[in-house]
Structure formats: C-alpha cells, structure tokens
Amino acid sequence: MVQPEAEMGLIRMLAEDLRTVVDRDPSVHDRAEALLHPALPALWTHRVAHRLHRRGLRRTARLLSLLARGWTGVELHPGAVVGRRVLIDHGSGVVVGETAVIGSDVTMYHQVTLGALGWWRDNGREAGERRHPIIGSHVVLGANATVLGPVTVGDRAVIGAQALVIRDVLADTHALAPAAVSMPGADRRSAVELMRTSASAGCW
Question: What's the pLDDT at 200?
Fold first, then answer.
C-alpha cells in the first residue's frame, strides 16, 4: 500500500491540500479564504497524526485526532490512509475508521461515514485484518453516504446522498439511494402515515 507521505513531503502536501480547496470549492476565491475552510484543519491535523501513528505514537496521534474532531466535527482516525487532493466539503459529521483507505482526488460531503460493521463482527477478525472500506481515486461520496465494512469502491464511482453501501461498487458506476417521491395534497393522510413508519424521531 502506498502511503501519501511517500509521494511528497508533509509541507508540500499541506500546500496541495490548500490549493485543492481553492480549485474545487466554488465558494472559495483565494488561498486566504481557503484557510477558513471548515474541514481543512481536520485534514491537515490528520496528515500529522497519521505520521505519528505509523511511528508507533498512537496516543499522541489519537489526541490530535480528538482535538481536530472537537474543532471541526470531522473524525479521521489517525490510522486511516488519506490520498492526495482529497476535499472534505463542509465536513461536519464525517467519520473515517482506522483501516479505511481513501484514494486521491476524492470528494466527500458532510456526514459521510466510512465505518466498520460493528464490534460483534470485528472483534472476531484476525489481527491486522481490514475492517473499513477502500475508496478508489476520483470518487464522490454524497452527503450522509455510509460505506460499511471491508468493501471496495472503484475509481470514479459516485456514492449518492443517503446511500448505504455494504457491498463492493465497481469503477465508473453510481450507487444511489431512492429519490424522494412527491405526493399530492389529497394524499396527505398517507404521507403522514408514511412518516410515522419510516422517519426517525430526529427528523420531525
């Protein structure tokens, strides 16, 4: 597995992250404004924490990750591998697990989860066995997309907003959640009943 740090020095990588925000976020007009991007501190902190984690300084790395999470709302485990030119747009609620691998030129929106299937499965895995997804290069992960387990998402795939992925996704394909359905006013009673049976209490 190629580590991002092996490709370029840390300072150059941080500068590239800054340029990525300017190049790919249309709401940012220059580098000074990019410094105020909400998720950039989380990514920069992860670049440092990941190096510490690889050198065996796990507690220090976790402390940095915890501080970044409290500041930005983005939780990137220091063990996760994050490629070059990754854009975490908005950032709030993003969670990336320890054995996840994210390729280069990936775009992630808010509330994306790259997680495991749960301790009831993962505690039985062999030591060092992967528990989290591999995300290929040039992938887009829409808002609130969830990818769970040791699955692989191929290059240039699109994971739509609200999608739940628990199986491999081939390169150049889209994995999309069902779109909302508009209901006429006459069907209001049916719509309310649907909300009672399908919506969580937190979205009322």
Answer: 42
